């Protein structure tokens, strides 16, 4: 559980760490969109190079990213297998009942695999280099136009920041409870599926109980501190759009143009 | 039963999310005699909890080996050894009430024994025995653990460990967050159980009064290393050293020092409890 890096922040001083959260979010969304535009080897190769370069810029060790992909690797491989086994077109290598392995399917499999892995890598770059609090501030700012149509932007962003804030706590607590139950003789990842599911009960029940307690405490605390939705709140942290953020977006725009040009 | 604990050159790393903490334990060598009550003290982050975890196979050493009784744990370990060691070493975590989950107190206490293959009837017998031991009414067995008060939850959680009948008991601040009376009761029940069953007990604590009252040895840790490992009296004789480590001094010892400074008379022995201090004062004729 401690190995899970989803939503964790990696403290650092890199250029990426210093970028504005909004610039990073927009860039990641655009880069992911490009992954869906790319449709040939050259475009994918180009995007791989860009992704690896961005990961290098973050100054986070490469194996950390690999660990980010690990929990999802089976889902990714399953999707790739579906693609490889059930796509026909151009040279067909194997044909057996409903299963066909074709050149087209294989190529598509590689593309889909790349797409998945790069999506995970890019979004991990975002969460590893941006503090959760900066992310929610950024989201709050980006959603500002929606205020015109009466969307409760402040409420949404405070809900987001509270849930992001508690992800590490929840993970640490999961680890603690797992350790405690292991010390009482539970063995995880053993036996039949049913047995494995049974071992989850002693973890989830204490976690639910403590999360509910914590939510209650948090709600009381917010009441005491005078939180009231619908009231205009001032902000403690300011976000600044700097020159480098503009450069970042220009860079992403340039990458976009190249990807479109490389497209067959 | 001989439950000597021996750590040989044990180093361990710790991983939290993307951040790796190397050497939370840094070549630790340690031998804890069977049947002793050892207090483990040191600042936050000194590696106390990590040391406890290695004793239970929850944190595997990157180097070195740990022997409990005749079971040995190394970095590459077989499941059997870990299972065996967990059966022998009962571990009470910090705030152990966070591990309660079952519908009834009885089921929760039986969870540990059942995991280690004790038959259901026998486990229920044990539950009755330990619930009495931790000072709760047998009627509580049929209640939900979530309906209990904080102090009761803590006792039930400790009972759940005692029901496994471990020969080594490892506790991480069992009294934290309880009222003084509740804390005292928990500590004295642990001490009683330790003597009755002839356990080897290791206690992590920040409370020097507990150390003075219950422990016969003290391990002082800092930055993953063991600085001092002495008999309790010996470690409290050098008060300046303790203060330089930011640790408190037991009340009685503190008074002793004040009296010695004011009167210029040196008391014959290191006093850790008020009774000892009173006796010493009578002995030198100050009272």
TrEMBL record, chain A:
InterPro entries: ABC/ECF_trnsptr_transmembrane
Main location: membrane
Topology of the protein relative to the lipid bilayer: Multi-pass membrane protein
Segments traversing the membrane: 73-94, 106-128, 246-262
Entry keyword annotation includes Transmembrane helix: yes
GO CC annotations on file: plasma membrane
The protein, known as: Energy-coupling factor transporter transmembrane protein EcfT
Compartments where located: Membrane
Domain of life: Bacteria
Pfam families noted in UniProt: CbiQ (PF02361)
Taxonomy of the source species: Bacteria, Bacillati, Bacillota, Bacilli, Bacillales
Alphabetical UniProt keywords: Membrane, Transmembrane, Transmembrane helix
